[in-house]
User: Fold this.
Amino acid sequence: MRPARPTVLLTVVVLCASLVGCSSGAGPRAWAASVCAALAPWRAEIGTLTSRTQQQMTAATTPAQAKENLTRLFRGAESASEQARAGVERAGVPDVDNGERVATSFVASLGAMRDAYGRARTGIEALATSPSAEFYTKVSAVVDKLNTEYQQSSLDTSRLDSEDLKRAFDEVPECR
Assistant:
């Protein structure tokens, strides 16, 4: 038996590497798992920030304290949204029809949410805290605008074009 030639081995290695490099993306289940793994900390952080802010706002606070609490909330939500956006971007493109469009829409949605939180933070930071009635009226306007922008940019996995991705989001443990 003859030993394999180094050039044959090199050719096989190059061929294998090129085939791996040509794969178009992660399978639906792997992509959904990566996306949900990126979104889980974001959801948890938004929930924690919201809960903490609600507790602080129901306590007797001054407009200055409310402004500080809301600014902290929106800054944290903006940062968490950016981390989620980057995580979803790292998930790559799912190997399904229109996978590039799906991945781009997820990343864009999270970017829009991040930007909405950033605009809310900036809006709150710009408010004068007196007179207090006017402050709270303007806070309501900022929060209403945030809610509208947030709804417009929200992720809805039930409206995916790909049945494989819908099934993956319903089935993978990371998405439950």
